[in-house]
Design brief:
The complex is a heterodimer of chains A (427) and B (329). Helix content of chain A is 65%, strand content 9%. Chain A has 427 residues and is mainly alpha-helical. Chain A folds into three domains: 2-106, no CATH class; 127-139 and 155-206, no CATH class; 217-421, MetI-like fold (Orthogonal Bundle), CATH 1.10.3720.10. A three-stranded antiparallel β-sheet of chain A has the order 2-1-8, with no helix packed on it. The radius of gyration of chain A is 27 Å and the shape is elongated. The mean pLDDT of chain A is 84. Chain B is an all-alpha fold. Chain B has a single domain (91-328), classed as Orthogonal Bundle (MetI-like fold), CATH 1.10.3720. Chain B is globular, with a radius of gyration of 25 Å. The chains are: A mainly alpha (427), B mainly alpha (329). At the A-B interface, α11, α12, α16, α17 and α18 of A face α1, α5, α6, α9 and α10 of B.
């Protein structure tokens, strides 16, 4: 009975239901936004296409998936065989995947949002600041304005003109004195939103504090999952393609091709690649694409060796020779005959490779050569934490924790998978 | 036997030179296809076109690619790596200024990783009956294996330098101290090296621990240990005279590769603790776009790698003579 409760699908359901309950208002607004968006497409197609961007689609997609996911898991849960037993690393994996897919729903803030630096700079975790709401401009009610209004509530931009962060306010005759640490600024009382004769003042909680530019650490950590996993998966796919294709070719052809490719592989294996990675990034500029390509091109060696070894072993098997004699092309041989046999070692290697790539990406970001300042990345946060080491422990602890958890999960999964595929090995 | 050893060494030497040659070619291709003009640093808009042309000629850029490649290779093998843009001296001089620190630092860290790994493995094996202790060591080991050096480095600085104010966080010596007394100077260096060495040891020890632990266990299950035991040899003698030497020898080739990698992976630690080593030199050179120095750093890292592999091979052949025949046949 207890074993039944602690199944991975229940964790998925509980997590998504918690998310739905805590973000119910946001989901409702997303639904309203979707309705307005569809009506906008019907009435004015060109404006709708102008308004469509990645963040909007991202919001729609994650909200929709969040509602559908529990239903899918409940209906199809029995068919999902993998990851049945729950362990902490399976839970960590679920949390990471959630953070990856549902990032806009989890935080509902822009990772680059910054405002009133003198108040929000380097706040420690669980600290809060007061928010003064300014009056919004009155605009006439047409569908486009309604849409934009809802959109600004759902899809947060990196700036917001309608609020002011402050420590305290004092009401004077017809203006307001807003205190922001060292400075005081005066705001006209007419500009401020007023309710029951008092200016509207709410508090905003920074759950994990802020960094040196006043940006929310929690939001950046969640969006950092996206960057890390995206870079990890893309570069692993590149190394997978190179390793499998060239390994298969060398294994099948042998002879001169084998010698050349093996020598090159050995050269790559015997050289500290971090120099090459840094050199290429410095020569060609560091952007998200160069990072993906460089990390992908520096991780194919072990895969190539594995695939080559398996192919050499395969070459003399009867069924493989038969398939060759039947006239299958190289591509068909690889996909239909070779890949299913060597899938297990490839998967194990890929999982370990994923951990390595995520580690390498954060190390590069730590050195200032990663994806650059426009994306939130754990390594970059850690670096800014080292710069402000005496005042901002939150910038060291949380990104460090995320990196370590990711690597632990990847390592553990690699080991579990290799145990699953080679039972009794290493005992 | 000696004759065979020399044969192998010559074989290894030729393959090392080949790898270096590959490396140089690869670097040359990279530098050639990279965007940007290497003469840009020396040509200002005020320069007359004739002079600008002269600068281009002095970079050999007027010649064909093949000739450039040949002179690149020739210059490398004659030890001429060009002039650093930021240091204004020859790259070889700069490298020789920074290499000794990196080499000694890596060797110290390597010594700690290797010996700590061995000691812990022996300790864990001796206490294998106490399940909680063995489990604790293995668990901690698994956790530390997943902690990258830049995370543990900043945590060490935060803990020991910022909170406890026990140890210095950066540099290799105190800037304010003017003492010339040898003892004090040594003490100064050592206190500055404690944190970086701990950081590197934390990163490397788990790997060695895992290897040693598995190898010791495997060796204990072999027949010769049972034979020795039945002859009445004491457990200590079995462990120190038979099991450990047998457990070390397969690890040496890994250690050779690892030490070579350490010379370059020490880079991140040097950046964290701002130590005056080759890694920080390389990162600085890359950020300053000082390409001759970058090439020099990459090549010296490759050379160090080859040398350590070479030494590891020799040690391996010295320990286990059977390997020589295996390589030669």
């Amino acid at each position: 009975m207890i074993k039944k409760i602690f199944q991975i699908k229940y964790i998925i359901i509980v997590l998504s239901v918690c998310l739905i309950i805590s973000r119910f208002g946001l989901l409702c607004q997303t639904a309203v936004l979707a309705r307005q968006y569809i009506s906008l497409i019907m009435s004015d197609f060109i404006t709708a296409t102008v308004q469509t961007d990645f963040q909007l689609i991202d919001c729609f997609f994650s909200a929709l998936l969040l509602v559908i996911l529990p239903i899918i898991v409940i209906i199809g849960g029995k068919r999902i065989k993998l990851l049945k037993a729950v362990s902490w690393q399976a839970t960590a994996l679920v949390v990471f995947v959630f953070a990856f897919i549902f990032a806009p729903v989890i935080t509902n803030e822009n990772p680059d949002f910054q405002k009133n630096l003198s108040v929000t700079r380097l706040l420690s975790p669980l600290s809060s600041v007061k928010v003064l709401h300014l009056k919004e401009k009155k605009e006439d009610n047409n569908p486009l304005n309604d849409f934009l209004k809802t959109k600004s509530r759902v899809v947060k931009s990196s700036f917001d003109e309608s609020i002011l962060f402050c420590n305290s306010i004092t009401v004077k005759k017809n203006n307001l004195e807003v205190r922001q640490n060292e400075t005081n600024i005066e705001v006209m009382l007419n500009d401020v939103e007023i309710k029951n004769g008092e200016p509207v003042l709410t508090t905003k909680l920074f759950f994990l504090g802020t960094d040196e530019y006043g940006r929310d650490v929690f939001t950046r950590l969640i969006y950092g999952v996206r960057i890390s996993l995206t870079i990890g998966f893309c570069s692993v796919i590149i190394s997978l393609l190179i390793g499998v294709v060239f390994g298969f070719i060398t294994g099948i052809k042998g002879g001169f091709t084998d010698i050349i490719i093996s020598r090159i592989t050995e050269m790559f294996l015997s050289f500290p690649l971090i120099f090459f990675v840094i050199l290429i990034l410095a020569l060609f500029g560091n952007s998200i694409f160069t990072v993906i390509f460089v990390l992908g091109f520096s991780g194919w060696m072990s895969l190539l060796k594995i695939v080559k070894g398996e192919t050499v072993a395969l070459r003399n098997k009867d069924y493989f020779i038969t398939a060759q004699q039947l006239g299958l092309s190289k591509k068909q041989l690889l996909i239909k005959e070779a890949l299913p046999v060597m899938l297990a070692p490839i998967i194990v290697n890929t999982v370990f490779q994923l951990g390595n790539v995520i580690l390498a990406e954060s190390a590069l970001s730590f050195l200032g050569l990663g994806v650059g300042a426009e994306y939130p990345s754990w390594g970059g946060m850690l670096q800014s934490g080292q710069e402000n080491i005496s005042r901002a422990w939150q910038l060291l602890a949380f990104p460090g924790m995320m990196i370590v958890t990711t690597l632990l999960t990847a390592n553990k999964f690699g080991r579990e998978l290799s145990k699953y595929y080679n039972p009794g090995f290493g005992e | 036997m000696n004759h065979d050893l020399i044969k192998i060494l010559i074989k290894r030497f030729i393959s090392s030179v080949l790898i270096l040659f590959f490396l140089i070619s690869f670097l040359f291709i990279l530098l050639r296809i990279a965007p940007g003009d290497p003469t840009q640093r020396y040509i200002s808009p005020g320069l007359s076109p004739q002079l600008a042309e002269k600068v281009k000629v002095s970079f050999n850029l007027d010649r064909s690619v093949q000739e450039q490649y040949l002179s690149f290779v020739k210059n490398f093998f004659s030890g001429d790596l060009g002039v650093s843009y930021s240091f204004h001296t020859s790259v070889t001089n700069v490298l020789f200024e920074f290499l000794p620190f990196t080499i000694s630092f890596s060797l110290i860290a390597f010594f700690f990783q290797f010996s700590l790994g061995l000691l812990l493995a022996v300790f864990a094996y001796k206490n294998r009956s106490k399940k909680y202790l063995d489990g604790f060591i293995s668990g901690t080991n698994m956790f530390l294996y997943a902690v990258p050096s830049f995370v543990s480095g900043v945590f060490l600085i935060y803990l020991f330098s910022v909170k406890l104010e026990l140890l210095p966080s950066s540099g290799i010596k105190n800037i304010t101290s003017v003492t010339s007394d040898f003892g004090e100077l040594l003490f100064d260096y050592l206190t500055h090296l404690i944190l970086p060495v701990i950081c590197l040891a934390l990163a490397g020890t788990p790997v060695y621990f895992k290897y040693f632990r598995d190898n010791i266990e495997q060796n204990y299950n072999k027949l010769y240990v049972r034979y020795l035991r039945s002859n009445g040899v004491t457990e200590n003698v079995i462990l120190y005279k038979h099991v450990i030497p047998n457990a070390i020898s397969p690890i040496i080739s890994y250690a050779g590769v690892d030490l070579g990698m350490l010379f370059s992976s020490v880079l991140i630690t040097e950046v964290i603790f701002s130590l005056p080593g080759m890694g920080r030199l390389a990162v600085g050179a890359i950020l300053d776009r000082d390409f001759p120095l970058v090439v020099g750093c990459a090549l010296s890292a490759g050379t160090l790698m080859i040398i350590t592999n070479f030494i590891a091979d020799i040690i391996k052949f010295k320990i286990d003579k059977r390997l020589i025949n295996g390589v030669l046949n």
